[in-house]
Amino acid sequence: MKNLKLIFFLSISSVLGNLENRIIKGIKAKEGELPSSVAIYMNGNLKCGGTIIDEIHIITAAHCCQQLSPKELTVLTGANDLSSWLPKSYGVSQIYIHEDYINSGSFENDIAILSLSENIYFNSVTKAIKLPTQETPENTNLTLSGWGKTKDSNGKNDLPTDLMKLETKIISNSLCKKWLLREINDSQICTFISNGQGACTGDSGGGLVDGNTLVGVASWIAGKKGCATGYPDVFTRVYSFVPWITKILNN
Questions:
Q1: Domain boundaries of the chain, sorted by first residue
Q2: If residue 245 lies in a helix (H) or strand (E), which one and from where to where?
Q3: I need a labelling partner for 93 at 20 to 30 A (CA). Which of 5, 174, 183, 227 fits?
Q4: Pick the residue with more confidence: 147 or 155?
């Protein structure tokens, strides 16, 4: 998966152009299993993931879109295999980055909405996801998905063409703070399943879902030696931003 910010335990790296999020030790998603998942391309290259929330809007991470113009981005929907003829391509007409997004420290408010240039064609493999109506409790099992790298390396061949998924679990913010020795605010969610499994470069912006409900947006990962090294992954908590999302959609 692409463009998750990789934050190392002793130093912060925010080189968005070079990092690509991925899912480590995930499995291939079945066709149509995650119909709201989309791939976001920048100038022809996979940049991030995103999630369909209605017929014309995509939620992703703010750091995926920062300092970019709409014409640089393309959204692909409707297929798990990006190398096939099945994905449908959409242009982007507008980028809405949260006005309080902070591109440093704990990367607060790391959320953005893309408005597409035309309505999405919905079918059995392309659908919108629901926004949360309540907080998601600790220990809830969730699904992370994306097209990011499947190994923590610099090899281009580690980028899958198939959508990958991983079952993970919410941990408390207090535990996450102690684990990472970093500030985690109430508008963020941490997940962890086991050492050697998790998000990585290329997965940024992708959805963390509970069935047909969008719970989180992949934001950043931590570790001394790279991805999936025994530290929690950090997501933007979508429930905290429902009023902001609704305002953008209504406008």
A1: 37-127+242-250, 129-240
A2: helix 242-250
A3: 5
A4: 147
Report CA Rg, the chain.
16
Confirm if 20 and 201 have CB atoms less than 8 A apart. yes
| pLDDT tens-digit readout, 85-121 | 789 999 999 999 999 999 887 889 999 999 999 999 9
Pair type for strands 213-223 and 5-8: parallel
The Cβ of residue 117 has, within 10 Å, a number of other Cβ atoms equal to 14
Q: Calculate the average pLDDT of the chain.
A: 84
CA–CA dist 117, 70 (Å, integer): 10
Assign 175 to helix, strand or coil: helix
**Distance between alpha carbon 192 and the CA centroid of its chain, in Å?**
15
Which is more confident, 8 or 173?
173
CATH of domain 37-127+242-250: 2.40.10.10
Tell me if the pTM is above 0.70: yes
Q: By the 8 A CB rule, do 166 and 26 touch?
A: yes
Identical fold between 37-127+242-250 and 129-240: yes
- Is 157 a residue whose pLDDT tops 50? no
**Confidence label for 1 from pLDDT (cuts 50, 70 and 90):** very low
What is the homologous superfamily of the domain 129-240 according to CATH?
Answer: Trypsin-like serine proteases (2.40.10.10)
Q: Has residue 49 got a pLDDT over 90?
A: yes
CB contact at 8 A, 39 and 148: no
Is residue 236 within 8 A of residue 102, CB to CB? The reply is: no
Distance CA 78, CA 187 (A): 30
Active site residues: 63, 110, 204
